[in-house]
Write a structure and sequence with these properties.
- The protein has one domain.
- The chain has one helix and eleven strands.
- It has a four-stranded antiparallel sheet with strand order 3-2-7-8.
- A hairpin with a 2-residue loop joins strand 5 and strand 6.
- It is globular, with a radius of gyration of 16 Å.
- It starts with a strand and ends with a strand.
């Protein structure tokens, strides 16, 4: 869950969130989602699996330690990018409950003055 506010909103503004995994991962760019801006605040939930397939002594098994390295949050209007914030996963997120993570603080995104 990423939440925050934006300044100088545009009527067709969108907040996009992209999960980025390590460069050693099979798919460096992970899940993403976006939300159309309504009012001054936003909340967006990006579901992702923490399980990854890993061989253990030659057996196929699952381990539950897959986490993004970075979360990129972008404020867009049409084709124009107004603001972009990159959050380090380890420092910027906390476990909100056994099934979800949330940003430690709300973001403030800036549009045009």
């Amino acid at each position: 869950m990423v939440k925050g506010e934006h300044q100088s909103p545009h009527r067709d503004g969108v907040v996009r969130v992209q999960l980025v995994y390590s460069k050693h991962s099979k798919d460096e760019n992970g899940e993403s989602g976006e939300v159309r801006l309504e009012g001054e605040s936003f909340r967006i939930r990006i579901p992702f699996l923490t399980q990854s397939r890993a061989p253990v002594l030659g057996l196929n098994s699952f381990k539950c330690d897959l986490r993004p390295k970075t979360v990129v949050v972008t404020l867009l209007s049409g084709d124009h990018e107004y603001d972009r914030v990159s959050l380090d996963w380890a420092k910027g997120f906390k476990m909100a409950d056994p099934t979800a993570y949330a940003s430690r603080s709300e973001l403030l995104l800036h549009g045009t003055p």
